[in-house]
Amino acid sequence: MTIKTNQSRLVYFRAQMMAMLLLFFRLTFTLELKAQEKPNMIVYLSDDLGYLDVSVYGAEVVKTPVLEKLSKEGMTFNNAFVASPSCAPSRAALLTGLMPARNGAEVNHAFPNPDIPYLIGQLKSNGYSIFAFGKVAHYGGNEKCGFDFHHDEQVNLYQNISQYFDSTQVEGPVCVFVGDRRPHVWWTEEMDYSPNEVDLPPYFIDTKATREHRARYYTDVSGMDNEMGQVLEYLDKMLGENIFTLFTSDHGAQWPFAKWNLYDAGIRTPLIVKWPGVVEPGSETDAMVSWVDILPTMLDISGSDIPNDLDGKPFTEVLKGNTHQFRDFIYTTHSGDGNFNVYPIRSIRDKRYKLIINLVPDALHTNHSDILRKDGAGAYWDSWDEEAAHNPLAAAIVQRYFVRPEMEFYDLANDPNEQYNLADDAKYQAIIGKMESQLKSWMEEQGDQEKVYLKPYPANGPKPNASTIDKRKNGQ
Predict the structure, then answer these.
(1) Which residue segment(s) compose the domain that 396 sits in?
(2) What would the pLDDT profile of 311-343 be if each residue is shown by its tens digit?
């Protein structure tokens, strides 16, 4: 009796193991099949959104429930970086897979050189219908990219998208780019958040005007998140189950030490990817990726041809959970923004250290915010000057904003806000020398001419204002 019982148990155990193996192989086959299919794709771009200013990345005041939902359904990248912290160079790098020096769009309001192809063409050659709504390329640039259709109006995105697809026969596979201008300045006049409750980075000067502008910025962040929820819900119903959805922002917000800068507040970006059946829901990765990697990844997962000479490369294996290592170093460049920001910068970053080289350290660092001081953008700067006039700590922040040394070096593990420049610390000279050599070698490989596009503002001269800009525009 005991022998029969043991035999029965053995047979049962074998049957259970066989069933589990069959289930495993069936699931594996399904995932592989899903990965081999051409997915429909959605790329949702925010404009000027700091990576720490959404709840997914730890923001405690501003609410972004749609991004939280997307994060729970997909993979959150903790170390995603743009190629350049200004709109035109960043978007040109995204759409070409090439860094600014190689594609030609180095300064803001520039476009890639005419002989540089957009990677949209690779998707179209593979049978994709590609649509763009809102700000995808820089202003006026959508028509250059080769989209099958583009609607450039930057308000009422949900309305524009739903009206178009409700009245248009679309053949798949489909790729839809959506560019929301929020939270780009000018920020809304509405304040859905109390100025007294908003949180400020430690390197901000805490004034009433700063808090009010921060509340308006947060309102735009939540407004973007809300409309994105409507758009994604609509597109999900239209496109079915096999959808690759990617959310990111072109660089940090137009706040001091963020946009126009190579500090993490300027170059580190939110990046969340959802792909049911392939990307594990609720997963995270510390793999370092760049914006030039996004389109090559999309080409890879869709089975499209990938040009050999790109700076970007696919992070498909990261998405599949097969690795959390991708890039060892992130390179970023900034070359300026017309007469407002004449301050070229280069940087190299690994997971712990960052080296920044300011190419014209004897010039003032400026931009739209501190020069024009417009309501809804940089009007708080008047209150910063007033505070700096009698507060030494505030004066130090203002001084650090405008005047910088040739070289900056930060230990990001101990100083994530990049407040303590260790460039002269003897302890780090070997690391600094190695990173400087590597950065300059990369710049040479890129054909980076370190060009200064316009005349800088001398650090020992007056700070530029609106009148200064007008005179420059008139050739005075």
Answers:
(1) 334-473
(2) 999 999 999 999 999 999 999 999 999 999 999
CATH number at residue 425: 3.30.1120.10
**Could you tell me if 234 and 343 lie in one domain?**
no
**Shared domain check, 412 and 366:** yes
The rounded Cα 50 to chain-centroid distance in angstroms is: 8
Within-domain flag for 28: no
Helices (H), 117-243: 120-125, 157-166, 208-239
Single-letter residue type at 6: N
Distance between CA atoms of residues 193 and 187, nearest Å: 13
pTM: 0.91
Amino acid at 11: V
* Spacing of C-alpha 167 from chain mean position: 32
Higher-pLDDT residue of 127 and 25 is: 127
Distance in angstroms (rounded) separating the CA atoms of residues 297 and 201: 33
The residue written with tokens 């080289």 in the block is 357
In this prediction, residue 409 carries a pLDDT of 99
Domains in the chain, number: 2
| Dihedral sign for Cα atoms in the order 92, 325, 76, 243 | positive
Overall residue count recorded for the chain in this entry: 476
Nearest-angstrom CA–CA distance, 46 and 60:
20
Is the pLDDT assigned to residue 474 strictly greater than 90?
A: no
Contact present, 159 and 231 (Cβ < 8 Å): no
Q: What is the pLDDT of residue 172?
A: 81
How many whole angstroms separate alpha carbon 385 and alpha carbon 380? 9
Is residue 137 within 8 A of residue 181, CB to CB? The reply is no
Q: What is the DSSP letter of 127?
A: T
Q: Which comes out higher in pLDDT, residue 3 or 96?
A: 96
CA distance 253 to 270: 12
CA terminus-to-terminus distance, the chain: 106
CA 344 to chain centre: 20
- Please enumerate in sequence order all residues whose Cβ is within 8 A of that of 85, keeping only pairs 6 or more positions apart, or say none: 251, 252, 258, 259, 260, 261, 262, 266, 267, 332, 334
Q: Are 240 and 38 in contact (CB under 8 A)?
A: no
Mean pLDDT of the chain: 93
For residue 76, give the nearest of 248, 225, 263, 242 by alpha carbon.
248
Amino acid code (one letter) for 68 = E
Tokens of 301: 């997962």
